[in-house]
Amino acid sequence: MTLLHRFKSDISVVEVPQRFNNPFYYSPHTLCTMAADEVRDMLSREKPLADDAAQGKMFGVLIVRDGDGTIGYLSAFSGLLAGRNNVDGFVPPIFDLQSPDGYFKREENGISALNRKIKEAECSDEYVKAIAAVEDLKREMASQLTAMRDDMHNSKQKRDAMRAVGGLTPDVEAALVRESQFQKAELKRATAKWQHRIAECEAVVVPLKNSVVAMKEERKQRSAALQRWLFEQFKVLNANGQEKSLLAIFSEYSGIVPPGGAGECAAPKLLQYAYMNSFAPVAIAEFWVGASPQGEVRRDGCYYGACKSKCEPILGFMLQGLDVEENALERGGDIGNIDIVFEDEHIIVVDKPSGVLSVPGIMGGMSVQQWLRDEYLHSNELFVVHRLDMATSGLLVAAKSMEVYKEMQRLFAERKVEKQYIAMLDGIPQRNEGVIELPLAADYENRPRQKVDYTAGKSAVTRYKVVDTLLYNGRRCAVVCFEPVTGRTHQLRVHAAHSGGLDCPIVGDALYGTPGERLMLHASRISFIHPVGKEPVTLESNSTAFYV
User: Fold this and answer.
1) What is the pTM of this model?
2) N or C: which end of the chain has fewer CB within 10 A?
3) What SS3 state is found at 450?
4) Which of 351, 389, 426, 509 is flagged as catalytic?
């Protein structure tokens, strides 16, 4: 039985893409959004599935062409859905972990039984009382020995006072020496006595502890062996017909064992089923359904790139043999003409277009820094002082010497540079102005995304004010002025999209909202003290506001 779905709607007028989209950064193709709508409709008619998805779940669709050239789609979910990894209408897992008679489940149950034995041993009366007896003796020993040391200290002070007065006879001096020696000997004897008593108690504890340690070591070894066995069973295909285990893929990619959950995301499952059934992949998209995980920005109905930590190595292999678009996050677009807003012998300020890198990216491509060096100044003595996201347009400051660069960096670090951004939001915030304080940390599993993290995140503060509202693509949108107090990566984008912030992503935000023609975020104004002349500098973008 095939799980290939035929579109319910007429797709004859929809142009089929010629190249496979990059799964890490893309705007979903019309066929993908149509397929996603049909998947959501299917979910809504299955209450147990809909209820589980409402808690928050990533789904995916893969547009494929069958052997007759007919276009259809496959659907998948990441992890489990309603506690199952085999659900009607969705492609199966690459490897079925949930099979009750399979080795994985049997060994997992064995490890779980071992966990229970460890917990029972650590909670047994014998173990708890033996540990408590040792701790009680250690506290008593510490208390008595501290009291003896205090007595010794007081006695020494008295002897020192007597010696300071002088006139001690030899007999008295000898008595003082004997007193000191006696107290030291008593302390030594008391210490040895306590240590002996503690050793006797610990002799009861040691075999109990050793038993627990041995079980924990067995658990560790069995868990590691099971993980390795599992990832050897996860064998994936690519478009060239080659097959490789996840263990081999990650070993070659980064020299590490695959992280937990690798191979269970929607994208690898979709491609695997397509290859196994001789379907030609055409386009892919992953979309979120339900509530957002705590800290992350996942919005119901929004499309997201594949995760980096688990899927980047896997998809790097599985996509071999397909004509795949470049990742626009790693390689900037054409730079065109850049407007020079201000220039003197020390600094230069440009109006960066959207879609252009501030500095060279991982995969190369022209950047503002490289353009200024190669095309404008014809000198390598040019350093971009701060960065704007590739998708963000607006004012960018560069220094013409390392000395000026360091001074400008100091001004930014000390928050002596005032910046103002204009953004169009996908919606209307509840309040017209205020301050957003949400600490941010890197989301390493989904680079370059950031997340709200109240434990490990760095302070991030943004002032905002709604300055206009308008109708954009049929939706009411707010135009907001942002003034970042701090300068964290993606600060404005997360503060706009997160439910603890404005709960309205910036229009066109492919990472935290809905992809569009461009990210509607523009660095419109900047103020600072000139790093050399020390006079105030305030500059405004010459670009026409993007929302006009």
Assistant:
1) 0.74
2) N
3) strand
4) 389
